[in-house]
Specification:
This protein is an alpha/beta fold and about 350 residues long. The protein is built from 14 helices and 15 strands. Helix 10 links the parallel strand 11 and strand 12. The protein is globular, with a radius of gyration of 20 Å. It binds nicotinamide-adenine-dinucleotide and zinc ion (ZN). Nicotinamide-adenine-dinucleotide binds next to helix 2, helix 6, helix 7, strand 9 and helix 10.
């Protein structure tokens, strides 16, 4: 049986624990904040977490089918644990990782939690997610991170997904080094998380590319050395002129469409790396007729969240400030309003929308 079938076969919730409010999709564009049975511990290694802070991410807007309340980012208080849970305790304040990992399968042992044979990207995808009052977390010991009681929940909630994604898929896979020239295509929350974490390595130049001038201005305020508006077809030319024809050492693709992958192919310098982060729905054209001789590396990755403990330390110390991406606040019962705002992100100038327990 495939992993997805095994997970879907289990009932998502059981009767007897009462009801809760959750965001439920009823098909494209049809979402509702409605009553659902409250999740309970099903497996010995589960925990049930009461959500205190959650957020909405770009991928949520794409998950429009089925009856699955999303998504996978958040902070909460552990309400109940299964008998097989040894590290996570009732009452703990925890960060919920967007990737569930068993910690023992061959992929987990390699640090590839995203491909865990009994987990991976399942929250808000194959099982109910965190845009609800309560969520069931499988493999709680290895999928939840205890937080100090005084931790800034809003900052921490951004460490569930966007920061490990920008860092692992973009900066680490792109092997950003001191002095490198880096270009990030896409100044959404993930591109901006890559921008903030790339600075751990002191690149000499970080060029941010987007079509949204507001997001480019935010990028400049967060450390981008240059901003290129990609409207029209001049982005490649502009980056080449900024780099005096050389191109960039690292091109991070953080949009997920053929046009932006093409920009990366057009600007990568000989010996450079293209780190793809975007989730692609369509094929792209790989220009080997040009790149075969350019000694480039192309990487892809589903976020593993192996760097979450490190990012947590940096955020707790203030060295990393995820909060800089927060633009809007709502309370859980206002979830529909939060979605409306996020759906018009450009008009509303929204980056990360935080939704908190009332
Ligand atoms: N690999 C992973 O594990 C992983 C995890 C989470 C999200 N993602 C993906 O990362 C990508 C970015 O996520 P996000 O939440 O920041 O998305 P987002 O939609 O908020 O941001 C995308 C940005 O790209 C810009 N853009 C669109 N077309 C462009 C173009 N032609 N040229 C330049 N800029 C353009 C938009 O203006 C926007 O600012 C998405 O594809 C998302 O699905 C990947
Ligand atoms: Zn595993």
């Amino acid at each position: 049986m495939k992993k997805s079938e095994a997970l879907l076969e289990r009932p998502m919730t059981q009767k007897g624990a009462g009801t809760m409010k959750a965001l439920v999709y009823h098909g494209p564009g049809k979402r509702a904040w409605e009553d659902k049975p409250r999740p309970v511990v099903q497996d010995a290694t589960d925990a049930v977490v009461r959500i205190t802070t959650t957020t909405i991410c770009g991928t949520d807007l794409h998950i429009l089918k089925g009856d699955v309340p999303t998504v996978n980012e958040g902070v909460g208080i552990v309400e109940e644990v299964g008998p097989g849970t040894t590290r996570i305790r009732k009452g703990d304040k925890v960060l919920i990782s967007c990737i569930t990992s068993c910690g023992t399968c061959a992929f987990c042992k390699k640090g590839m939690y995203s491909h865990c044979t009994d987990g991976g990207w399942i929250l808000g995808h194959l099982i109910d997610g965190t845009q609800a009052e309560y969520v069931r977390i499988p493999h709680a010991d290895t999928s939840l991170y205890p937080l100090p009681a005084a931790a800034d929940e809003e900052a921490m909630a951004l460490l569930s997904d966007i920061f490990p994604t920008g860092f692992e898929c973009g900066v680490i896979n792109g092997q950003v080094k001191p002095g490198d020239t880096v270009a990030i295509v896409g100044a959404g929350p993930i591109g901006l998380a890559a921008l903030l974490t790339a600075q751990f390595y002191s690149p000499s130049e970080i060029i941010m590319i987007d079509m949204d001038d507001n997001r480019l201005a935010v990028a400049r305020s967060l450390g981008a050395t240059r901003a290129v508006n990609a409207t029209g077809d001049k982005a490649v030319q502009e980056v080449l002129s900024i780099t005096e024809g050389a191109g960039v050492d690292v091109a991070i693709e953080a949009v997920g469409i053929p046009a932006t992958f093409d920009v990366c192919q057009g600007i990568v310098a000989p010996g450079g790396r293209i780190a793809n982060v975007g989730v692609h729905g369509k094929p792209v054209e790989l220009h080997l007729e040009k790149l075969w001789s350019h000694n480039i590396t192309l990487t892809t990755r589903l976020v593993d969240t192996v760097t979450t403990p490190m990012l947590l330390k940096l955020a707790l110390s203030g060295r990393l400030q995820p909060r800089k991406l927060v633009t809007h606040h709502f309370l859980l019962p206002e979830m529909m309003k939060a979605y409306d705002t996020f759906s018009s992100a450009a008009r509303e100038r929204a980056l990360k929308v935080i939704v908190k327990k009332a």
